[in-house]
Specification:
It is an enzyme of class 5 (isomerase). By secondary structure, this protein is of the alpha+beta class. It has a single domain, classed as Dimeric alpha+beta barrel (Alpha-Beta Plaits, 2-Layer Sandwich), CATH 3.30.70.1060. It is built from 2 helices and 4 strands. A 4-stranded antiparallel beta sheet has the order 2-3-1-4. The structure holds [(2S)-5-oxo-2,5-dihydrofuran-2-yl]acetic acid.
Length: 96
Amino acid sequence: MLFHVEMTVKLPPSMPAEQAAEIKATEKAYSQELQRSGKWRHLWRVAGSYSNVSIFDVEDNTELQELVSNLPLFPYMEISVKPLCRHPSSVREDDS
Ligand SMILES: O=C(O)C[C@H]1C=CC(=O)O1
């Protein structure tokens, strides 16, 4: 199942810079592992913001919840999820 996920990061201004850098580094490694596995299919920065638009390819809602809630930045993000299905006019056979 494909999901459109938008994440907006809101780190508390009081968080020490070293702690923020550590969480971001752990987040990067985890997200890259998921991208390589094919579960996190697309990751785009929304220009001018600390938000991303992502496409996840997972088994079901439960797997999406598990992956997203394990993100190190999860406690500091607003997240919205939209389920996707194939558009009948799409010319991309593999939905890439
Ligand atoms: O920067 C972000 O958008 C938040 C998050 C998503 C991937 C990652 O490395 O950090």
